[in-house]
Amino acid sequence: MRITILFILLLIGTNLSYGQNTGFTLSGKVKDAATKTPLSQATVSVTGTSTGTHSDSTGFYKLVIPAGIHKIRFEFVGYATIDTVLNVNTNIKLNVSLKPSDQFLKEVQVKSTAEVRKTIETQSLTVLQGTELERTRGLSLGESLKSITGVTTFQTGPSIAKPIIHGLYSNRILILNNGVRLEAQQWGSEHAPEIDPFIANRIEVIKGAAGIRYGSDAIAGVILAEPKALPTTPGTMDGEVNAVGMSNSRLGAFSAMVEGALGKKLEGFSYRIQGSYKRAGNTSTPNYILGNTGLSENDFSAALQYYHKNYGVETYYSNFNTKLGILAGTEVGSIADLKARIQETVPTTPADFTYTIDRPYQTVNHATAKVRGFYNFDDGSKLQIQYAYQTNKRSEYDLLSYSTSLNPSLYLKINTSTADINFDQKPIGGLTGSIGVSGMNQGNVRMYQYLIPNFVDYDGGAYIIERYRYKKLLFEAGIRYDYRWLKAYRFNDTVAKIEATTTHYQSSSSTLGATYNITSDLSLSGNFGSAFRAPTVNELYSNGVHQTLISYEVGDPNLKTERASNFSLNLNYQSHRVAIDLQGYYNNINNFIFLQPTGQYTRVQSGSLLMFDYTQANVFFRGIDLGVIVKPLDSLEINSKTSLIYAYNKTIHDYLIYTPPMRLQNGVTYHFGSLGAFKNLVLGAENVFVAKQTKVPANQDYAPPPGAYSLYNAHLGFRLIINHTYAAIDLSVNNLTNVAYKDYLDRFRYFANEPGRNIIFRLRVPFSILQNNK
Amino acid sequence: MLKLKHATYVLLGTALFYASCSSKSEQAVAPTIANEQLTSAYLKLTNEANASDTTSCRYRFHLDNNGNVKSTDSTALVIKANAKYDVKVVMLDTTQSPTFTVSDEIKQRQNYHLFFFQPTPISSANLVIGTSSPYISGTVTSATGPYLNLAVARTDLDTNTPPLQVGLTDLFTTGAASTGNLRLVLRHQPNAKNGLYAPGSSDLDVNFKVTIK
């Protein structure tokens, strides 16, 4: 079933934004599932309309349907009927295999190839949606993406996870929340992305240097969290409720959404209101409880859109609020304390379960407001303008020894305005493309302790991406220019006055790629992307103790921009029984900025701390991501995912710290079809194996990398039909065998094990409130 | 098309509005304030045999404007051989005005704090380690002398059940004339104090030069 959903959802491809023009073609072949013989005179219809057709003698059918979400029905006498819901915003090819109706309908084969509109077509794009995304509900954004090859997380205990793409994270990944480039204090390794994953109904991950379209900095990749397109059928109102419960940490998460499209005189207006609430207490490892690891989160978002024939305006607002506990015992004062912690097999400070979050903790509020307008010209070109304003307030509360202060130790507020204009040119022969400009202005204000300075920055960029399709070949090329002006305000204590330092950075990004569709099932893509990243304020001006890392970090105001040259090769094969996605990449980064231990110690009241300098070197990352899905039976799916990565510092001839070790995920899923009241019953199990990282730089870590680990996860999913609607239920067990392990990419591995067994219950109930209330 | 133009002007206008008014607050740099900042630690000693015989030593941290330790200085402790001294630990935060007496706050939270005293060098022969002793286990011992001939005992108790020592007041017993260092460590052990060094983390870790003559 998953392969089916995957393919159907692939179609749902691009967010509908334009395309209220004449309509798109839906075409394909109808076959007998067993014999593969074409079925002529099969009925293909759009439910609720008079649109319909019959397949010809070769099984071929073709329909022209307007953009929007449609339910398509395939019927043939003696065969089971298939209904499928499509979000039509491009020409779609959909091949359907029907099964004789006397046969128990376990599985339908739907395979299609859609002309998915990607911003960079020759680059690897992975989409997480449908049941796969639903099975991550309740997790943070970073955790949700772990099932994608080449993607893992950089964690700070169980409550904070940042995504890693091809070994890189933080500022080297751009995250777009509903089309708005997330701007927060993302340089911090313990600053998790401020996004409520419940907002998204699809998450796209671009692996590789993708700065060309979304702005410089994206030298490792881009994550796009996309909400479902707003409804367009007038006079409808729908809703959805999600609930998640987890045994470990006793997490409860609830999300509710109401959306609709207005009818009558207000036709063209549609809206959505959504809210989430999440609360978790202390997480347990197999042998002890992790003190102060609770979290709470409440989020709200609202969208209002007006669509007319060829133009539309969308407004969006989201507010994200979280409080994250930091594992007790990790705020050590000195190297000696840290070494003592590393020696302990069990925390000396025992903890009980509680939802209470004490110091140390973080609170973060992130508000985003956006207005987007578009205009579709009659010649097929499209203009899109977007303005967004974001405010991110971060407070970090340190562990206090004697003070009764209620103040945080660190407060940072950053305001960002972004403006983007994109113009998609009208297709000229096989040539399509887009051109655009973007601008950003930021202001950062700090209070309490010093970590990064106040600053103001202005960014501007312009790009052009063109692609040319010729028969089975697609060529793509693009170039972008970016400029950054950064002014930092710091208090200079030697002269006792505020000093302003201005730096500016400018450079170009480019992309060049080609895709060759060898057969309709097999394609090969090659892409070269060149991108740069200007140093961030922390890399330039940090000077002080970074809590929980107990490192004393010193910035370098003379750092130059990083330059990434990323080569990737993608082989994609998809047939009825086998799907293979193979990506090889080589990302060379010159002037790569990283923290290097100096070997020197600095004196603080509580002892001595190791000093780290921000420094630059030429490095490379290379690796392979392989995903294979095999379906020996219609109802049985075996999938295997492999992520291999190798990172090397060419300047000092050593490995790079925090490189993800080899990761293998092997799973099997069996689809029972319907068993009594249980519809779409699915049972699955998987093994996650993470090897020990042996390629680590000498003398750069407080403790050697932990050993390899192997986890077993299982899940059972089904749907229950209740009063014309359904409830989707999923029961999962993670770390089934309750293995005690540590992960190399968790900064708290010095202190504690990873979570033990976790039983997760997920419920999703979509419902309809109004239908056709015109 | 007209509507599109209007939309463009509105968007660009808003962008410019924000761009033009956002830099004032960034130019005013807020002072660096730490919730907790220890700047000096004193040991104040009174000879038990002669109340007018008092002495003290001081360890001081000099901070830069970012609250980071720029430099340190300390005064040595000079005490008589074969004597007993009553000791009081005083810690200050001089970044606050008026000066904040940290040791008074430690007294308020004595159930979470424990002081340790470690004379160095020490020999394996006169090494005293136990749950009631303020010495730091794991301190390197040397088989050959000379040793700092000083014994330390905490004289105050907290309100834990059973009561545990604190170390804000202590008794120093000196032996024969000798020189060395005295390491003073304040451990912060919230909900974990058990008389041992291991739980929690250090708030203060300093060394005083000591001369017994």
How would you sum up this structure, described in words?
Chain A: Keywords: Cell outer membrane, Membrane, Receptor, Signal, TonB box, Transmembrane, Transmembrane beta strand, Transport. Chain A: Residues 310-736 form the TonB-dependent receptor-like beta-barrel domain. Chain A: It is found in: Cell outer membrane. Chain A: Belongs to the TonB-dependent receptor family. The complex is a heterodimer of chains A (774) and B (213). With 774 residues, chain A is mainly beta. Helices cover 5% and strands 56% of the residues of chain A. Chain A has two domains: 2-114, Sandwich (Immunoglobulin-like), CATH 2.60.40; 214-770, Beta Barrel (Maltoporin, Chain A). Chain A has a 22-stranded antiparallel β-barrel. The longest helix of chain A has 10 residues, at 2-11. Chain A is globular. With 213 residues, chain B is mainly β. The model of chain B has no long low-confidence stretch (mean pLDDT 86). Chain B has three helices and 13 strands. Chain B has helices spanning 2-21, 24-27, 102-108, and strands at 40-47, 50-63, 69-74, 77-79, 84-93, 100-101, 113-120, 122-123, 141-142, 150-154, 169-174, 178-188, 201-212. At the A-B interface, helix 5, strand 21, strand 22, strand 23 and strand 24 of A face helix 1, helix 2, helix 3 and strand 13 of B.
